[in-house]
Q: What sequence folds into this?
């Protein structure tokens, strides 16, 4: 993989800053994911309780139905005995339905609350980090592409003349503008290297294709 496709600087100072920012973002995300999972687990207890109520109530309803069927076989008073047992079974099934609804609602609420707690702080840090990283990657790709051609190198040198401090320009050549106008390749290469370093790229090891 060529350097232009690697989303990191090749200058040590900027590379260290980028790696530190990556560690901060990963750590921050991990902390809030753990917090979100803790919120989910706390609310999921309610869902578990609802499902337990559903299971227990269904069991009671089944026992009451069985008792009602047995009581219905009792001569003379079977209907009188079976009727309240059947009503109690229906009531137990209603409780089971309520328990199921509680379980389903609490399960969805657990995930929603977990996302509501974890997502905002994660996105608050990750979105600026991602924007800066994508912007750097685009600038690096453009700079490396320009540096691979003579014309692009001249453009980088011109940009350095416009943007870099005078002391750094003078360190390249006593008359950097004149050197650029006179097509002094050594001076142009030095000016382009200044602009590349400002972008976070070391000019060494870059190859010109034309």
A:
């Amino acid at each position: 993989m060529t350097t232009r496709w690697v989303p990191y600087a090749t200058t040590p100072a900027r590379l260290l800053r980028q790696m530190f920012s990556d560690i901060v973002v990963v750590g921050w995300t991990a902390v809030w994911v753990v917090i979100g999972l803790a919120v989910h687990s706390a609310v999921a207890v309610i869902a578990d309780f609802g499902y337990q109520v559903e299971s227990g109530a269904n069991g009671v309803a089944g026992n009451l139905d069985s008792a009602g069927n047995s009581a219905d076989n009792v001569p003379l008073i079977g209907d009188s005995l079976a009727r309240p047992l059947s009503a109690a079974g229906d009531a137990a099934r209603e409780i089971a339905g309520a328990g199921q609804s509680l379980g389903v609602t609490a399960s969805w609420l657990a995930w929603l609350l977990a996302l509501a707690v974890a997502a905002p702080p994660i996105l608050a840090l990750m979105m600026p980090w991602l924007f800066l990283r994508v912007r750097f990657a685009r600038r690096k790709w453009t700079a490396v592409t320009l540096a691979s051609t003579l014309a692009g190198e001249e453009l980088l040198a011109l940009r350095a003349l416009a943007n870099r401090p005078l002391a750094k320009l003078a360190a390249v050549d006593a008359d950097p503008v004149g050197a650029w106008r006179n097509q002094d390749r050594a001076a142009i290469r030095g000016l382009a290297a200044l602009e590349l370093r400002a972008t976070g790229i070391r000019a060494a090891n870059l190859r010109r294709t034309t």
